[in-house]
Amino acid sequence: MRSVAVRWVSGAAALGGRNEAGHGLVEFGHLQRYEVTRTRRGFVTHKDRPLATPKQVAAKPFIRPAMDKFAQAQEAARVRFLADLAERGVL
Question: Does residue 18 or residue 63 have the better pLDDT?
């Protein structure tokens, strides 16, 4: 079983003052208006270098597909919880 921690990051202050892309989650995609460079620490957005034609960066959904399986996960958790209680003699 895997779990994912989600943190919404927005603005330079949330990024420790660095001038990096702070567009938050990639769930819905975004419009890239400026040149972006990849560094060892991540991506840096050059706001002084606008793109001649902005490009749409495709969405990479992970929350929506996970929500589609929520009912299945909830039922699996319920079954396991009841099995654990039965194993301990509580039920």
Answer: 63
